[in-house]
TrEMBL record:
This is Efflux transporter, outer membrane factor (OMF) lipoprotein, NodT family. The lineage of its organism: Bacteria, Pseudomonadati, Bacteroidota, Chitinophagia, Chitinophagales. Residues 1-23 form the signal peptide. Belongs to the outer membrane factor (OMF) (TC 1.B.17) family. It comes from Chitinophaga jiangningensis. GO terms for cellular component: plasma membrane.
């Protein structure tokens, strides 16, 4: 065995020893605690998703939702984030391929007389075995290269594959994030639209009561003229009328503010929002109890948290693989010469390849720190995922209960309004015949106004509950 082979074997021994030492310090794979166990839900207990279609069946509302999905600035920004994630995924998918670069380079070196190249070039030029084209320019020595250079890291331990998996899951998370935002935008548009419809109905109720109160003022003034009522009664009726008219202005301001908020959500300047006339008290049908687990887990925020968890786990795998040696191959091929005129001669064709096995030795602490960071981020993503499931389940459960209770309240309030309307008619009749005083009439009118406004609020709460349930189930 010659000395050169002996040196090569010693070098391999040293590299193998360093690789073994590096491998001994590789951390273990990440393990997460047991996930939250959700109760099973039977098919008969699942939600009646068709009832959502009865909430969003208004043509004006559908048009506003389409406008928001196309023009909302937050959604457009989210779309750009999806494009960024998609581009990063495309980069990660191609990371395992070798890089190939076309190279045209020219340079010159002035070697010292007491260097290997300087002495070698001088000695070569004195050799009788070379012709005139092979004589080397010595002061300085040019070098020209036209060809291709490549670099290729062999994915021995799955590091590049783990990085691709991380990018893939982050892309999915960005799409779920956009879906989450879309659901929130749709819910926001529907909520403000039904707020406007409810305010319109409140305005109609106030106008009707203003008419009733103006008739009562006229009646009591006639009775005062006939000596059957006092000035105090006239003042009480007028005060109630003024209070109701002031309430009208307050509702008008709420309508303007809500329209402006809705226009901002639609990505446009303030303008009138066209909407259906609310002339009937239609209430959404009752929904079945129970939370379908499969539907809950399809919520975009839960899906996004799950994808982020998968991405961080892939980051941990990539950080762990960084402890192992990496194999890199760097080939090249092209024309190479020290004279420009001889560059494209067949004798100037050159090629070569270098394979290198690199193992980390002195940067173990940096790699360990990066692994710890990736592991902590993965555990953070795990806990966020679990919290998203718990929050989603609690939110859906609360909304279902709210819708059910608000529907029952609406039924009772409807009966209350009917009774109080009859009481207003009765009090007016008794007042004109002298069997009731003006305070009883004022109380009856005030009670029916409050009950009618409460009925509108209750109906709006039912619709808002259905919209919240739509959003809570991820728009499914």
């Amino acid at each position: 065995m010659n000395k050169q082979s002996l040196h090569i074997r010693k070098g391999l021994y040293v590299l193998a020893l360093a690789t073994g030492v590096s491998a001994c310090s590789v951390p273990k794979q990440i393990t997460t605690p047991p996930p939250v166990a959700l109760p099973e839900t039977t098919v008969t207990d699942t939600l009646d998703i068709k009832s959502f279609a009865q909430v969003f069946n208004d043509p004006y509302l559908k048009s506003l939702i389409d406008t928001a999905l196309a023009a909302n600035f937050d959604l457009q920004a989210a779309s750009q984030r999806v494009i960024v994630a998609q581009s990063q995924l495309r980069m990660a998918k191609n990371a395992w391929l070798p890089t190939v670069n076309g190279v045209i380079s020219a340079g010159a070196d002035r070697y010292g007389d007491y260097t290997l190249n300087g002495v070698g070039n001088y000695d070569t030029n004195l050799s009788p075995n070379i012709d005139k084209d092979q004589k080397i320019p010595t002061r300085p020595t040019p070098e020209f290269f036209v060809g291709f250079r490549s670099s290729w890291e062999i994915d021995l331990w799955g590091k590049i594959r783990a990085q691709k998996d991380a990018s893939l899951n982050r892309y999915f998370a960005s799409t779920e994030g956009r879906r989450l935002l879309s659901t929130q935008v749709v819910a926001g548009v529907a909520t403000m639209y039904y707020d406007l419809v409810a305010l319109d109905h409140e305005l109609k109720i106030i106008h009707r009561n203003i008419g009733l109160q103006e008739a009562a003022v006229a009646t009591v003034e006639v009775q005062k003229a006939g000596g059957r009522a006092t000035e105090l009664a006239v003042q009480q009726f007028k005060a109630q009328l003024l209070s109701t008219k002031a309430m009208e202005n307050n509702v008008k301001q709420q309508i303007t503010a809500t329209e402006n908020q809705l226009n901002a959500l639609l990505g446009r300047l303030p303008q009138h929002i066209q909407r259906s006339a609310d002339t009937t008290n239609i209430i959404p049908p009752a929904i079945a109890k129970g939370i379908p687990v499969t539907t809950l887990l399809r919520r975009p925020d839960i899906q996004q948290a799950e994808m982020n968890l998968a991405a961080t786990k892939a980051d941990v795998k990539a950080a762990r693989a960084a402890f192992f040696p990496s194999l890199t191959v760097t080939p090249y091929a092209g024309f190479n010469s020290f004279k420009a005129g001889l560059l494209f001669q067949p004798a100037s064709i050159a090629w070569g390849a270098l394979g290198g096995l690199t193992t980390p030795i002195f940067n173990q602490k940096q790699l360990q720190s990066q692994f710890n960071i990736s592991k902590a981020e993965a555990m953070t993503a795990f806990y966020r995922y679990q919290q998203a499931i718990v929050d989603g389940y609690a939110e859906v459960s609360s909304v279902i209960s709210k819708v059910e209770n608000e529907q029952a309240t609406w039924q009772l309030k409807s009966q209350e309004v009917a009774v109080l309307r009859d009481a207003v008619s009765t009090s007016n009749l008794l007042f004109t015949t002298g069997y009731a005083n003006y305070l009883e009439v004022i109380t009856a009118q005030k009670s029916v106004l409050e009950a009618e406004l409460t009925l509108v609020t209750t109906r709006r709460n039912v619709y808002q509950g259905m919209i919240t349930l739509y959003r809570s189930l991820g728009g499914n």
